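Field guide to reading this record: the first block holds the primary sequence, the second block holds the structure written as discrete tokens, and the final block holds curator observations. Each block starts with its own label. This record concerns 3-oxoacyl-[acyl-carrier-protein] reductase, catalogued under organism Lentihominibacter faecis.

BLOCK 1 — SEQUENCE
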Amino acid sequence: MLQGKTAVITGGVRGIGKCIAETFCKNGANVIICDISSPEAAAKTEEELKAYGTRVRMYNGDITDPQTAENIAQIIKDEFDKKVDILVNNAGITNDKLMIKMKPEEFTKVIDVNLNGAFYMTKAISALMIKQRSGSIISMSSVSGLKGNPAQVNYSASKAGLVGMTLSAAKELGRRGIRVNGIAPGFVETDMTAVLTDEQKSHAAQNISMQRLGQPQDIANTALYLASDLSTYVTGQIIAVDGGLIM
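BLOCK 2 — STRUCTURE
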């Protein structure tokens, strides 16, 4: 479905981002991964992805620095024939705490990674897509950005901001042939949820219509659809992949 396409994925060394990278590689895409994980973790992911037979380029960079996005754009120009088809803004962090106890820097850091970083990447990569008049940009929001969540004013604000940015960018870039969409995952089993007990997971599942937690592959499949030519008339959409959690 992505044969010959090139994708940039932030936060692609582990979790949902890694699953998206694997799914893209399986479907023929070359991938450039921007992540701040350890060299050992990055090397392991790179080896695993290269087994699918497509090009894999790892870049250790902090997306809160605008220069990182510019460096990724330069890699595309120098190593990928100035061609990029897909951007997945997946990198993100949490720092949950009740608002009354949250320090200003704890709020700002989450905004800086989750929202500002996505803006820097979208700006730099869309500039290349505009020249080729095609592309698909996918930003990872969250159900917390659609309905809010206690002790997550920083995280919810960042993910709600991504929704607004996605809708505005879709209106700006549509006439240039670029689609911009978002995915809002629900409760997904990743390293972040691995610390929960089975009882806690069971309780969470009771609030989900489908009575189970999501899997990274559920999110990756939706990203594959939005990245592929199956969604050439889909833009400005935020797709909740949450098993019916917030309907």
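BLOCK 3 — OBSERVATIONS
The chain has a mean pLDDT of 94.
The chain is about 45% helix and 15% strand.
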